Amino acid sequence: MRQLEEKTISSELAFRGNLLKFRIDQVELPDGNQSRREIIEHPGGVTIIPVSPERKIIMVKQYRSAANQVLLELPAGKLDNGENLNDCALRELKEETGYTAGKIRELFTFYTTPGYSTENLHLFLAEDLDYGKQETEDGEFIEVAKIYPERIPDLVLRGKIQDSKTIVGLMVYYQLICQKARLNPFTRT
Amino acid sequence: MRQLEEKTISSELAFRGNLLKFRIDQVELPDGNQSRREIIEHPGGVTIIPVSPERKIIMVKQYRSAANQVLLELPAGKLDNGENLNDCALRELKEETGYTAGKIRELFTFYTTPGYSTENLHLFLAEDLDYGKQETEDGEFIEVAKIYPERIPDLVLRGKIQDSKTIVGLMVYYQLICQKARLNPFTRT
């Protein structure tokens, strides 16, 4: 197997924003040549799949400047400095939707866009929900929306869900339902 | 319904990289207050789900500086200036894997991380593959890997696939297989 790894030779902070940093790395390629990598540093965060006692998935609608439109997404948020992952998931769920969760567990982590961003997201499943008051932060305008899991494949395949972390969370939750029902296209009886 | 939209008041280029631009917008919120948005401008691109005549999904392994490791991903790439989407998908497939596709169709588009990046990806399904020589660009080190679709749920749920666009593409392809087999956990007979 050919070695694929790159070695970072130097790293320069090109621009420091309040949330994001723009870093430029000089790397040594597997063949000894050099190349430049533009990297956005992001603190990382959580995404939550909140499932209500009525089987509904609790989602949020918010305006996304970068996409220039209102998107339907799973609740999510950035890790505060030094914050525990579970606490972060429960906090973001409460702030954005008002719900508290009696049961929460991490499914796995992934990179939203590993080609240029360090952003790593931890995906949580939240159950035993109790409704309370939404606690959005200053400058956050979020509307809660609820969908039945039956609608997931159609919403995703018709391009109605446009946010990658939300597609990941919804499709994974749908697969968990399929597995519970013992549905597998490759082992049909 | 409360209005969620923001209005951009001013937009300033904070840093221009070769690939990415760091933009800072001043926006007016729905309540009339102002806020700052840090946005990364990205040219957008394609992701391809290539399925071989042996039912295998053709994937790529490459080192990702931002993730600090080698990741298993679907072939993907950035749109060249003015390039047609289909052409881009066929070009990236050929460059990264060596395969040409007799049949290609776009499934839908999504944002990798709409909270701060304009990156929009077009997801393609590529079939009728023919094998040829890989044509990686200078400085690209990519190894081809193939997986059977049976493995998708396990690989994703165990966190073995860490790239969001790849999880999206694989889970969507698995769902297409389930639909073809008429498997639906909500309409069991």
UniProtKB/TrEMBL annotation, chains A, B:
| PROSITE patterns in UniProt | NUDIX, NUDIX_BOX
| Gene Ontology biological process terms in this record | nucleoside phosphate metabolic process; ribose phosphate metabolic process
Q: Which organism is it from?
A: Halonatronomonas betaini
Q: Does the keyword Hydrolase apply?
A: yes
Citing just one GO molecular function, the answer is:
hydrolase activity
- According to its record, what are the GO cellular component terms? cytosol
Quote any Pfam family the record assigns: NUDIX
Official protein name in the record: NUDIX hydrolase
